[in-house]
Specification:
This protein is mainly alpha-helical and 488 residues long. Helices cover 75% and strands 0% of the residues.
């Protein structure tokens, strides 16, 4: 039984290293959007290159995050976590010194691999290290500090972009890793799943990532060579079919198809796809809109987006308690509708927009919608499967959210009619942004309809999420239940 106490020096070191490790990945998912206009100007990159700067990271992270958790269970969570931190730091160095957009995109893909190794491991280390009496408080502190990191990320990123330069958004990860790794090796106990068995589903992970990459390429490059785009789209769909077939016939699949036999689990993941597609697209485009059209600096744009994260930090726990009392159906219906209203309010944000009168009201409504839905969504995912599969269910839901976000970043510029140079033309970008907000609002309404029609109250003894104070905007909280027997 794990016996590290939170009040002990070792407990504080364990908490520090897990916060630092997960904080690197969370910061990069929030600060890069703020840096995109400057990256585009410095590297003479078009809009598709900026899309790939975001999506190259998300493709490998979403495709490999389940495999990363399984590797930690088998070979040691601390070991895989440390490898992930080092990998992430080296990839960050490559991003920071990238001479052109192509190298930056390749380095971002490598960053995603590191993120897939360290993200599930950070919370799993807390679950496996702390005494049961302290575990809930430790998880609460971990998610709270992570949320604070997510809140200050755009502010810090904007300050770096306007000051030392956008490269420091990535280079900042290196000193964090230099602190994190020795602390982990010295103070964090090793742990693993002694019952882990079978082969790793490497083929499933590769096919999943390949499908995401090919479909993403087809969407981003849709205005280019028609033959190449068509081949990529067909190959991507073929990879999706191959992934489904492999998962159905493997004895130890990464994503067991029978988990979707739960109607509730399937429905909540469909809601997740709708919600996080809209949120991923919004935060990608909003940072550009505030800088390109409204004229904000990177620092001002990053600071402007803080209210959504602050609201989640302050109110997510209460939202989870309310959902426990009234059930998830109402929060998962009302939350997306509030988010949709917030995005429609963003239609008022154009040239000469006032922050107090135009930007802030939209972000407040959006933030309240996110508060309403995030904790109930996670609780409902966990409550829709057996306890032994809670970690797997959470991992699938988290991967679905990230995949939805990267697809939105790929598809929205195409759907909104953004040209390759749109972010250099304020009037054109403003028009396309308004269309994109309409698409995002539509996705959210679809999520609300699914929730209202299908989602029901989980059984009273279902597993409750521990990551209630959550500040991330790209994916729901990742629960670290260290039970992934079907993964390895």
């Amino acid at each position: 039984m794990p016996d590290v106490r939170l009040a002990s020096p070792q407990g504080k070191w364990v908490l520090l290293t897990t916060v630092l490790g997960s904080g690197m990945a969370m910061l990069d998912s929030t600060v890069v959007n703020v840096a995109l206009p400057r990256i585009g100007r410095d590297l003479d990159a078009n809009l598709s290159a900026l899309q790939w700067t975001v999506n190259a990271y998300m493709v490998t992270l979403a495709g490999l995050i389940l495999l990363g958790g399984a590797l930690g269970d088998r070979f040691g969570r601390r070991k895989v976590f440390v490898v992930g931190v080092v990998w992430f730091a080296v990839a960050s160095l490559l991003c920071g010194i990238a001479p052109n957009a192509g190298v930056l995109i390749a380095a971002r893909a490598l960053q995603g691999v590191g993120g897939a190794l360290l993200t599930p491991g950070s919370l799993a280390l807390i679950q496996a290290s702390f005494h049961p009496d302290d575990r809930g408080r430790a998880v609460g502190l971990w998610s709270g500090f992570g949320g604070i990191g997510a809140a200050v990320g755009p502010f810090v990123g904007g300050w770096l972009v306007d000051g030392p330069g956008w490269r420091w958004v990535f280079l900042l990860n290196i000193p964090v890793a230099l602190v994190c790794v020795p602390v982990a090796l010295r103070h964090v106990p090793e742990s693993g799943d002694q019952q882990a068995h079978g082969r790793f589903d490497v083929l499933g992970a590769v096919l999943g990532a390949l499908a995401l990459a090919l479909v993403t390429y087809a969407l981003i490059e849709a205005g280019g060579d028609g033959v190449v785009v068509a081949v990529s789209a067909v190959a991507g769909l073929a990879a999706v079919v191959a992934f489904v077939l492999v998962e159905r016939h493997r004895p130890d699949p990464m994503m067991p198809p029978d988990i979707f036999a739960s109607r509730q689990f399937t429905a909540v993941n469909l809601v997740t796809l709708c919600v996080y597609a809209a949120l991923g697209g919004f935060f990608f485009l909003a940072a550009l809109q505030l800088q390109v059209v409204v004229g904000y600096s990177a620092l001002a744009a990053g600071t402007a987006l803080l209210p959504t994260t602050v609201l989640m930090l302050l109110l997510s726990a209460r939202s989870g308690e309310l959902a426990d009392r009234i059930g998830p159906r109402i929060p998962l219906t009302v939350g997306p509708l509030l988010c949709a209203a917030g995005m429609l309010l963003m239609l008022r944000v154009g040239p000469g927009a006032s922050y107090a009168a135009d930007v802030l009201p939209a972000l407040m409504v959006l933030g309240l919608g996110m508060v309403t839905l995030v904790a109930p969504l996670t609780a409902t995912v966990l409550g829709s499967v057996s306890v032994v599969r809670a970690g797997l269910a959470s991992g699938i839901n988290n991967a679905a959210a990230r995949a939805a976000g990267l697809m939105a970043v790929a598809a929205l510029p195409l759907l909104a009619g953004m040209g390759e140079e749109a972010y250099r033309e304020p009037a054109a970008f403003d028009t396309a942004f308004d269309k994109a907000m309409g698409w995002c609002a539509g996705a959210l309404v679809a999520g609300a309809v699914i929730a209202a029609a299908v989602v029901r109250r989980p059984p009273p003894d279902c597993k409750r999420p521990e990551c209630l104070r959550h500040g991330g905007v790209t994916a729901p909280p990742l629960e670290g239940e260290p039970v992934r027997k079907r993964l390895g």
